Amino acid sequence: MVIAAAEKAGATVLRGARVVGLLAETPPGVWVRLDANGEHAYRARLVVGADGRSSMARQWGGFRVEHDPAGMTIAGLRIDGLAAPEDTMSGFVHPGYGMVSLTVPLGNGRFRAYVGRHKRDGAPERPWRGKTAIADFVSANIAAGAPPTWYASDLQVAGPLASFDAADRWVPHPQRAALVLVGDAAASNDPCFGCGLSLSRDR
Ligand SMILES: Cc1cc2nc3c(=O)[nH]c(=O)nc-3n(C[C@H](O)[C@H](O)[C@H](O)COP(=O)(O)OP(=O)(O)OC[C@H]3O[C@@H](n4cnc5c(N)ncnc54)[C@H](O)[C@@H]3O)c2cc1C
Fold this sequence. Notes:
Bound molecules: flavin-adenine dinucleotide
Order of helices and strands: HEEEEHEEEEEHEEEEEEH
CATH superfamily of the largest domain: FAD/NAD(P)-binding domain
CATH topology of the largest domain: FAD/NAD(P)-binding domain
Number of helices: 4
CATH class of the largest domain: Alpha Beta
Radius of gyration: 20 Å
Structural class: mainly beta
Distance between the termini: 23 Å
């Protein structure tokens, strides 16, 4: 919907394209890799880096990034067929283990599940990623307090399992010459508490 609105307003939208570098000269621009069509340079008066919490634009632009000490990590997965309430968001906190479990119903038996864990003694645990970590992810939800019966039915994993370092991260001055960072590229906060998107426009 937003992409359609951007096109309607006159933007050229390139799907499947990846920015692979910045052009620092005047006018500035970006190198874009287009599938099977090689790389192209695009120039503009202003380059906006809106490439999220792992922003490469931030790195290419040489921005100074500050961050809180490592604390929580959060892992998320879409699971269908959970026996959890469909009309309620369910949260469990296990202070002793430093764990949070959150289950968000999406309708029609579809759910997003999250587990937040504290990194103990500064030693980061291996992040949960991919199919091999799904059993650990489910066990952690139960250890944090989610009822085991929710996971006893025929579950379908409907998306990739991914983990994120939850520490707040920010660029003190997210503008340099004709490059500006917006959204999570400029600052991302701890997603364990379900905020972030609402802050994007203010950063
Ligand atoms: C686990 C988790 C749970 C969260 N839960 C919530 C929540 O409940 N409520 C809430 O408000 N917020 C939540 N957030 C935060 C929210 O997702 C972010 O604040 C928001 O998505 C930031 O928007 P953005 O457009 O800046 O970045 P993103 O949504 O990350 O978008 C960046 C885009 O840039 C693209 N991109 C990156 N590099 C390149 C490149 N080189 N070339 C081309 N494209 C590129 C990416 O593919 C992506 O589409 C959560 C975050 C996480 C990690």
